[in-house]
Amino acid sequence: MRQITGSCRGWGKFALGLGLASLLASVDAKDLALAEIHPPGHIIVKAEELFASRLAELTRGELAVNIKHSAQLGNEEKSWESVRNGSVDVVRINLGGMVKDIQSARLLSLPYLFRSREHMWRVLGGDFGKRVKAEVEKTGAVVLAYYDSGARSFYTTHKPIQKRSDFNGLRIRVQDSPVYKDLISELGGTPVVVSYEKVNEAFSKGEIDGAENNLPSYVSSGHHQYARYYSMDEHSSVPEILLMSKKSWDTLTAEQQKAVTTAAAESSAYMKKLWAESEAQALAKARKEGAVILEKHQVYLSGIETYAVKVYSKYVTNSEDLGVILDILRSE
Ligand code: BDP
Fold it and tell me: How far apart are CA 199 and CA 222, in angstroms?
């Protein structure tokens, strides 16, 4: 517990706008640390700031979220471990990094599964979303919300990727996921697992020739300064997830839990609204700073897709999952 002193730094303009500072000036607040790898200014951090300000408002200052951005609490792998063992209250991570423990995350990471963001959201809003939640909650973490992560595409240092054979001999950074490692191998490249915070270093030391990510992360991380060819193949759309440790959740009153759920849902909706704009801004900045963007039609998708989908046979291993994948592929 700590005394809120009236400082509203980092709580976002929403809290300020509501005159919350004076309301909260003398309330005893429970601090909730939120582990985040992105720096302030990233759209995910903006969504978290809204989560924090709305939660403070809804609980009249009883719960204070302290955003530990820029990997202050370690990388995503560490966050995933910490939220399960209860050593951190809240974490925001990408489902792509949870595949070793969560079968549904493995399926979600399969390349070219979703045709668009809207398609991904519809699938997540249906039975498949319930399955993800149930599997995650078995591990000791409570699912608070999903956030957009757009579509991920490849980017490279020396020449653009336009067709399958362009991967030959390239070392491509991936998240620590067997699905992504196999994807790069199928495409003819060499996967190199590097933690997100260390990717710039790996580029500058010449240890990798490329990576893949969505536009806001490509630019906010500064990867565009090393890998100037961004090929919009949009091979995967794996959402972000906001989790609370069960240990912290159980210390909250029912009313506080409800407030957490509401604030998380609002922050997700807020981010959904801002996502397209954030992609457009990132794209403009990348172009302005010298990136060469290859539009979807300039990337010879069929050659890449044919190889990429070979990984399905390894990860879709039973008839239930096959049914799920076919339903997703066929769904509107
Ligand atoms: C970013 C995600 C972050 C991932 C990172 C990565 O927001 O959660 O860990 O990509 O590639 O877009 O590691």
Answer: 9
